[in-house]
Structures are given as structure tokens and as C-alpha cells.
Amino acid sequence: MTDIILLEDDRELREEVADFLRGQGHGVREGGSKREFRLLNADRPCEIAILDRRLPDGDGMDLIAEGREAAWRCGFILMTARDACRERIAGYEMGADHYLTKPVRLDELAVILKSLARRLHLEPHWRLDLTLGLLYAPNGIRVDLTGLEAAFLAVLGVHPNQPQDRRQLVLELGKDYHSYDSRNLDALLKRLRKKVRNASGLELPVQTRHGLGYMLVGRLQREGD
């Protein structure tokens, strides 16, 4: 539901929190230093950053200062073992949206994320994990995909809100256009729509545009390319 960068140098804690967040339907990219955060965020700016304060190369609060100065459209959650009131005040003054003391309660983190997403007006979106072959619906439900189904959605997701013609789709899927029956695409989409509807209760945002091809409506976040 939300694109998150999780920055924590304790590998065991980071993996525990990341696994929980992915189970909630969020997209999570992980790092253990300020340098890794900058690389991850430069590649694709995150929607919410969960930052440890004590990192191998400095204080996680420095990233909040950088983000606020650069006007990043991002929410910040600080995680720290420091529970002193002055530490919390310093975090909020720097621009943190929330401050969590370790050990982190995962149920509290889930509620904070929902609240922050609403405040930031982050719209739920569909997310495609190509590595695992999973489609996450905006309500957090995940749908298992075949390789062909995942590839079909990935191609449509490259140019959302623009019709993709059948010929190009067939070629992108690695098929020979002259020998491939394009009606198979209709059958593929019909099965995929039914699978998504049965699993999530939502309609797959893919339209058939007669004479033009198919179009993904809205946003599809892709991972694992």
C-alpha cells in the first residue's frame, strides 16, 4: 500500500520489521546506513521513511533535515533506543512525524503508518512484485500470479493510462506475433480479472480498449525488475 524505505543497521531487527510490513502489503526497501538511504531514495523517492537514529555513518535525523530542506514529499518515522523527552523533542523539531522507542511494537507501527498515510494523502495503489510473482491490491490482499500474468501486467505498467496495442504486447511477452493467437490475451485477462476479484474483492484496473488494445488505469508500483 505504501512505498517505504526502512533504515536500520541491526539486521535481525530490520528483517523482522520488514517482514511484518510486507505482510501488511507495503513495499519495503531496506538499508543500514545513511549512504544506502540516499542511494535507494535517489533511485525512487519513498513515500515514508522509517529511520534508526544511530547508524554506522551518523545520525538518522540528518536525513530528516536533508529531506525537509529539499522539500521531499515524504513522511518520517524515527526509531531509537533513546526514550528521553529531550530526544523526542529534538526529533520532532527536526521534522519527524512520529517517534518510536525500541523495542518497537509492530501493532503500534502499523497504526502509525495508516495515520501518516492518511495525513500525507497517500492513495492506496496496486503493487507488482516480479521476483515473487505477487500482485498486492490496494487493500493489502496479495494475489499469486503465473509468470505470464505478471509479465502482462508489467508491460502495461510501463505506460499507465495509455492504451498498449496487441502487437506490441505480444512481442513484449516474447511471443511470435504472426503465429500467436492474440485472442489468448483476452482469455488471459479474463482469467486474471476473475482471480483478482475472487482474492481481493476488487476489480483489476485494466481496460480493454477496442481497436487499440489494453490499458492499465492508475498507478502500478513495480518491484523486482
Describe the structure.
The protein is an alpha/beta fold. It folds into two domains: 117 residues, Response regulator (Rossmann fold, 3-Layer(aba) Sandwich); 98 residues, Winged helix-like DNA-binding domain superfamily/Winged helix DNA-binding domain (Arc Repressor Mutant, subunit A, Orthogonal Bundle), CATH 1.10.10. 41% of the residues lie in helices and 23% in strands. The protein contains eight helices and 13 strands. The strands form four sheets. Strands 2-1-3-6-7 form a five-stranded parallel beta sheet, sandwiched between helices. A four-stranded mixed beta sheet has the order 10-9-8-13, with helices on one face. It is elongated and about 70 Å long. The model has no long low-confidence stretch (mean pLDDT 88).
Write a brief caption for the model.
With 225 residues, the chain is an alpha/beta fold. The protein is built from eight helices and 13 strands.
Topology:
Layout: E1 3-7, H1 11-23, E2 27-31, H2 34-43, E3 48-52, E4 54-55, E5 58-59, H3 61-69, E6 75-80, H4 85-94, E7 98-101, H5 106-119, E8 126-129, E9 134-136, E10 142-144, H6 147-158, H7 166-172, H8 183-200, E11 206-209, E12 213-216, E13 220-223
Parallel strand pairs: 1-2, 1-3, 3-6, 6-7, 8-13
Antiparallel strand pairs: 4-5, 8-9, 9-10, 11-12
Tally of separate domains = 2
What is the multimeric organization of the chains shown? single chain
Task: Report the major sheet.
Answer: 5 strands, parallel
Number of strands: 13
- Taken in chain order, the helices and strands follow as EHEHEEEHEHEHEEEHHHEEE
Outline, from the CA principal axes?
A: elongated
The CATH homologous superfamily of the largest domain is named Response regulator
Query: Gyration radius, to the nearest Å?
Result: 20 Å
Low-pLDDT sequence parts = none
As for the CATH topology of the largest domain, it is: Rossmann fold
Q: Give the mean pLDDT.
A: 88
Query: How much beta, percentage-wise?
Result: 15-25%
| Widest sheet, order of strands | 2-1-3-6-7
- Distance from N terminus to C terminus (CA atoms, Å) equals 19 Å
* Helix vs. strand class: alpha/beta
